[in-house]
């Protein structure tokens, strides 16, 4: 099996921040082979191309490896070099894991070559011949030499001669010591009395002479004037290179790791960075990834060592010293067995790392002291690389290496889980022996994948446990998975939990797992601090150990398996009596505890959502009732006359409605909770009672609550007896409140007041009683008409959300007094007569969201600055605070003529959203924004150009800009990431693609592309469609999305052009690039294929993938789509790939065409060479595109 390393880049899914780092698991070679055959049979080329999207490196086939027993056969004259050079060479070969045949027995002159030696030569892949002074004196050596050269001629046997203190000329001409030896052999032959033997010796003499001449002409190494250690290292490297022994290692196949492999490979090639830390949660694949990369690259270093599972091994006594000894042995210390002290070992390691270029992988570090003992504090030789895997990212820079005056350069790589497709692949590997789940199992397989959340270990364990099980067993296993985590998985995950340094951190983990997933981190931190925890330091510890992460919107996120771990730890406090636990999050259990009034002082938090209870119970009840009613109805009408049956049916229907109504009423009363249920819950801090009907006095309600959520609260105001003096967060969303209280109350600790979607809320006030209020959320309060002026006294207010408060006529003027307000949202407040007065003076304001405000044009009579967005949009005077960092003005009917003129003063603005407005070009004041990073013009239907976008721009979003024609960037700008979609009119995105009429293309450019005899190409009869933008026209398309620049077009026709050389009748092609001499440099490849077009087929979007197996290079790009308007018949697709730096003569190349609805009738590739004479070289019309390739490699991604 040819060893191949394929990395496919899917261009239309390449976006910044895209999920990059994934899990890793392995296939054995038989499993991989079986999987490939099944997938190819069942799913064809698309799935085969999907497999190219992973990192693929397969082992050398068994049939190939079984032919050889040794890598190298050593031929030498024992008397000359046995105890010196050859012995050292033999040891170096063994140290490099090169299987070497070394026969250490002297054979007397005249003895025939032994059969075991003949067999060893024939079963070795290479021979190293040490041609020393007396080599030719041994007939045994000469017989070996003859046989070795015969093997070279008859097979691919590699021969490396070493001229050990002899001259190649002496060997070639048999002079000096070689001449003397041959003279003695001749004398012996002539003295032989037996004629037959004399004749045999004469033939041998001829063969020996010929062999000596032949071996002297081979490329080898000379020892004269060279240090033997350097010579031996060079020989070992030469053998490694020529035998490709790095590919012979059993390197596993990986799933979903292409991005991580690229990152680590880049690190290994980067001279600046010395240490890489791969961190992630337990079972995510850190060990497998580092092992893969180590096996792939360890031969690039003078010394290497992989220390696996350090965390577990160090739990046992003296195991750290054992690890040190293993490391010393790996990096070449010969005294490692005599070391019995860890400090002595650490000192030796330090010295060795300073002498040799070393690759060191330390897997599973869990204490920084381990690093001090395994790598020391003095650094290492330039070019050395240290790869560390850990669950705790904070450990690494605490070690002694980073305490020095010049700490090493360090980079971090966070490894995350698999996506859905990769998860299915891994699950299929272990559950179906490499097969993709078939239709019977696919639904259950998706559920397992969802439960595992892309966690490789969970997928492996789940798949292995379900192997050869039927669908019913899968369903039962899923039910079990939802109740409890597999012990093997939990054991791995709990290691991180057990490593938490304090009980505070462990309690914090359990609190977050039960109540705070998806909540804002600042919101959670404020509540947890009032729950007598230390959240800031604790959250940092959880994040460093990959037990928690903070999302892009500042929300707390936790892998589902970790959340289940945290909840299971709480469940173990009292498996069968939930009221004896510290936290109750399961709705049914919470309902039972409250309904039966079993609450205890142990409960710290409780969650109950009656919608979850009602949905479950009503579904169960209605199902049972309808089944019983149906049985009764069928039994009743079965033997009655037709008229009676009709009457009975109507009677039963009437009874059914009455019964359901009564049942619903009694059922509702049955589910109500009494407030007495909270008596005795003295430690209750967190209480969520959503859509719960409470009966009784609220004086029994817990008084120590920190967070109270009561969605769907039925009363018009909060009862006065409700004691909320310690409350940090009050969430009354979706309730029937009209006012908060009849009388204002003092809530000294309240920081978060959330009243979203309280549709009956008319007025909100009493802010004097909330001195610490930081966030006020009134979004969706459609009846709200007044916000009390007392809001101006909330000195600490950071966020005010009034979005979609459609009846709010005005904002309180006192908001100008809010000197700490950072975010103001008035989206959809379209009934404002005027904008907030004095907003320009709110200098701390950073985020303003004013979408769909539709504000009338008024000029305030006050002298204060006023924001006015005129409804007529004929003029606009807007004054905004210069402190704004983010501004959104979507769907405000802004045009170029009415665009706010005050934008130029927004020197701090980084994010701007102008989506849905009526601008036709990018306004000058936007281009002048000196810090703008993100610009969104989505849905601007009149927008035609975005020219010279700001130089600081990092992200440009312009989907649904149906009139857009051209996008260009500032000449000094770094390339931004782009997000765009359908646009018929777009002709150019600078540095990404360009579309023009084929008739306008320069003739010299077409010649350079190798498009000769191209009358069919220049035919203007047929419309085309951009592969990126679905744009119609007579098109010559240039794509610059990834490393290659690709030129594309197509035309009506049924055969390939005459100049296409490599032709296939299938959708794939494999060939070796031919050589045409040094003067012919490869410029690129032309790919051409013929498909059939039928009127019923929608616009197709085939892709082409080109892979260079020799250079481990792969790229994929989409060819132009077929327009729906094209006539039926055959169509020829043509593209030129600029690949001059990626391809050379002799490279193995594969090309695939892929689309499930495209049948390739004929497929061909031709190589384009640069064969101009130096004297006739003209200006290259492709020079600009070559420079674009360099721009593109700096980073551009286009999401379509």
Biggest sheet: strands side by side, in what order? 13-14-16-18-19-20-22-24-25-26-27-28-29-31-33-48
Structural class: alpha/beta
Specify the number of helices.
32
Poorly predicted runs are 1-66, 106-110, 616-639, 662-668, 855-875, 1018-1035, 1120-1126, 1189-1200
Main beta-sheet strand count, sense and barrel state: 16 strands, parallel
- What share of the residues does DSSP label as strand, in percent? 15-25%
Distance, first to last CA: 37 Å
Average pLDDT reading: 79
Task: Tally the beta strands.
Answer: 48
Q: What is the percent of helical residues?
A: 25-40%
Radius of gyration: 39 Å
Shape assignment: globular
3D structure, described in words:
Residues about 1-65, about 105-110, about 615-640, about 660-670, about 855-875, about 1020-1035, about 1120-1125 and about 1190-1200 have low confidence and may be disordered. About 30% of the residues lie in helices and about 15% in strands. The strands form nine sheets. The protein has a 16-stranded parallel beta sheet with strand order 13-14-16-18-19-20-22-24-25-26-27-28-29-31-33-48. The chain has 32 helices and 48 strands. The two termini are about 35 Å apart. Helix 19 (about 440-450) packs parallel to helix 21 and helix 23 (about 505-515) crosses helix 26. With about 1200 residues, the protein is α/β, with parallel strands linked by helices. The chain is globular, with a radius of gyration of 39 Å. About 40% of the residues are buried.
